[in-house]
Design brief:
By secondary structure, the protein is mainly α.
Length: 118
């Protein structure tokens, strides 16, 4: 279960729709709505209104959209985004650690060579 309660999750709905949540907030929010049907319904309502307004602002080709499916796609896309960000963070930490180890090994080698010449 997530670390946030319904009051906090409901306050995050608009931020989710506007894509202004941090990665940690996104993950907590998605974990919460996955287990809380009330908050999921709240998100679904706001999402449908948001998408309907977007459709009114854009040129309409006459097709009918399945807003629930659009929300599910958005949630899946957001989960992928979270995984990608976490993976990139892991890789950057790994690369940084490798560079630090290489520098340390080089410094030790250099110190040994200097000591050898003295």
């Amino acid at each position: 279960m997530s670390d946030i309660d319904c009051r906090i999750a409901e306050s995050m709905v608009t931020k989710y729709i506007n894509h202004t949540l941090s990665i940690n907030e996104l993950e907590e929010f998605l974990d919460h709505i996955e287990h809380c049907s009330s908050c999921y319904d709240e998100l679904e309502t706001y999402f449908i209104v948001h998408e309907a307004i977007q459709q009114l602002d854009e040129k309409d080709d006459g097709s009918v959209l399945d807003f629930r499916e659009l929300l599910e796609q958005d949630i899946r896309r957001t989960r992928r985004h979270i995984r990608q960000k976490r993976w990139l963070h892991f890789l950057s930490v790994l690369l940084f650690s490798a560079v630090l180890i290489a520098v340390a090994v080089f410094a030790i080698f250099l110190a040994m060579e200097i000591k050898h010449f003295l």
